[in-house]
UniProtKB/TrEMBL annotation:
It comes from Phocaeicola vulgatus str. 3775 SL (B). Residues 209-301 form the Bacterial Ig-like domain. This is Bacterial Ig-like domain-containing protein.
Length: 362
């Protein structure tokens, strides 16, 4: 899945922007025990002067005089201008070559000095350069045949100073494979956990007539997916979606987050009383070598959605993986209760990766 991330690149979305934008600062205070407590404190920065400069340059350099922003790279824009972003309240232009010459031209055109220049160098990439790198990366990704590397990449795009590539599991082996099979550039920065993190959360298996179950009693360690059944035997409608996470118990008895792609479409499924929802979760065995043992599947549901009485419940069910092929063949399928006669019609979209790819009976 390709996701383009624009961090600090504001020139595509100035139209309709407010003059003041929030800025988050990390602040710390001491609590009653003397421990430092960190929290995000939002302040407001005034970017109106910079926005006026962008508006003035858009009228001169842009392809459409009625459109604000998006003029960098246009035929009328000076070739020395390769990017722009806000550093707090200050507008910053990325310039190649003579900055004094560039300042004179930009000040004269904008009728303002309310900006700062940043020179593009070998180690300081412009937004234009980073976008070119991402365009090339997109083309190479489309022809990549290494399934392990491809499935390990969750997103990539232009950051403020780098091209940022995020892995499900950011291991030295993954970074090396990327450099050898896709692209080796000092402009690329890798993100993601290097090893599965500890996650000892627990959820609820059965409450208010709502319960969560694995569809099969056991799955293969080679299985690409596992399926789960959410039953609503209560007296209220419940809402669920596409987001989930999985943990596993390691050899030391510590529960850790199973590395998966946690990006999902925000979509809601309504499950009426007496109904059920069948959900397929990806296990990514090609990214993380899944061992035999205990696993937990977590799935959030909502009661009284879109009302002041909304109640979120984190559901959980345990399931097992095994490398015993005979045990997998003998796996017992859950008997899902039939929906009552007259049950409301509901539309359940088909997921991108269908259940037929499940290697439960491999």
């Amino acid at each position: 899945m390709k996701t383009k991330i624009w961090v600090g690149v504001l020139f595509y979305s100035f139209l309709g922007c407010a003059n003041k934008a929030p800025k988050s600062n990390l602040t710390s205070k001491l609590d009653s025990t003397g421990e430092a407590v960190y929290f995000i404190e939002d302040t407001v920065v005034d970017q109106s002067a910079g926005l006026q400069v962008i508006e003035a340059l858009s009228r001169v350099y842009g392809n459409d005089p009625n459109s604000i922003g998006g003029f960098i790279g246009s035929p009328r824009c000076p070739s020395f201008l390769e990017g722009m972003f806000f550093d707090g309240s200050t507008l910053v232009f990325q310039v190649r070559g003579d900055t004094a010459h560039a300042r004179r031209i930009l000040e004269s055109t904008a009728g303002s000095k309310a900006f700062r220049l940043e020179q593009v160098t070998e180690s300081n990439y412009s937004q234009q350069q980073l976008m070119s790198i991402v365009d090339e990366l997109n083309q190479r990704f489309d022809t990549l045949t290494d399934k392990k590397l491809k499935n390990n990449m969750t997103s990539w795009g232009v950051g403020l100073r780098n091209v940022e590539v995020r892995f499900i599991l950011n291991t030295p082996e993954a970074r090396q494979a990327f450099r050898e099979k896709l692209m080796d550039s000092p402009a690329i920065r890798f993100e993601g956990p290097e090893q599965p993190i500890i996650d000892e959360r627990i959820g609820i298996t059965d409450t208010l007539g709502i319960s969560l179950h694995p569809e099969y009693s056991v799955y293969s360690t080679e299985a690409s997916t596992a399926s789960f059944v959410l039953l609503n035997q209560g007296n209220k409608n419940i809402m669920c979606g596409e987001h989930y996470f999985i943990t596993y118990e390691d050899e030391n008895g510590t529960w850790r987050a199973l590395p998966i792609n946690d990006a999902a479409i925000d979509i809601g499924y309504m499950v009426l009383p007496g109904g059920h929802h069948l959900f397929t979760a990806n296990l990514y065995p090609e990214v993380h070598s899944n061992k035999p043992g205990r696993y937990r599947f977590f799935y959030e549901v909502m009661l009284d959605a879109d009302t002041p009485l909304r109640h979120d419940i984190l559901m959980m069910t345990e399931f097992r993986l095994t490398d015993n092929k005979e045990a997998v063949k003998r796996a017992i399928k859950m008997n899902i209760p039939k929906e009552p006669e007259g049950y409301g019609i509901r539309y359940v979209p088909v997921q991108e990766e269908s259940a037929k790819e499940n290697t439960t009976f491999k």
